[in-house]
Amino acid sequence: MNTDIAKIEDRLKDLVSKNEDAIKGFEKASENSKQVGIKSYFEKKIIDRMQFLRELRASVPELNLGSVEIEGSAAGTLHRTWMDVKAFFAEDNDEAMLEEAVRGDKAAINDYDNALAEVMMPHRLKEIIRAQKEFLQNDLETTEILEHHR
C-alpha cells in the first residue's frame, strides 16, 4: 500500500475510533445523568456521532476502517470507568458528565485538526472532516452553555 494512502487510512481509523469512544462515552454520560433534558442532550450527541461514523466509513469505502460494530478503544474504556467514578463521587452528576463531554469534545477537535493537517488527504474527504469539526465546535459551545447555566 502506498505510504500516503496508509497515512490517510491511519488518520481515518483514528477518527473512527475516537467517534466510537465518544458514542460509548455519551451512552455512559446519559446513564449517569439525572435530568431528562441532559439525558436527551447526550442521546442526541450519540446520534450525531453515529452519523459521523457513517460519513467517514462511506467517504472512502476502499479503505479498511473497521467493522460496523461500535467497539471503542482501551483508552476509551478506561475513560468511561473514570466517568463512573466521577459520577459516584460528584455532588452533581449532570455537571460532572457535561464537564467530561466538554473535555472529550475539545480532544476530538484536536484529533480533527490533526487529520486536516494531512497534506495528501483528498479534497472531498477534507470537506467531510472539516464539516464534522465545525459541528463539534458549535456543539462544544452548546455543552459549555449547558454546563455553566446549571
The strand count comes to 0
N- and C-termini, Cα separation: 51 Å
Helix-strand string: HHHHH
What is the overall shape? elongated
Please indicate the percent range of residues in DSSP E strands (runs of 2 or more). under 5%
- Sketch the major β-sheet: none
Radius of gyration over all CA atoms, rounded: 16 Å
What kind of assembly state do the chains in view correspond to? single chain
Report mean pLDDT, rounded to a whole number. 82
Number of DSSP helices?
5
> What would you call the structural class?
mainly alpha
Query: Low-confidence parts, pLDDT < 50 over ≥5 residues?
Result: none
Helix % is over 70%
Explain how this protein is built.
- The protein is mainly alpha-helical and 150 residues long.
- The chain has five helices and no strands.
- Helix 1 packs antiparallel against helix 4, helix 2 packs antiparallel against helix 5 and helix 4 packs antiparallel against helix 5.
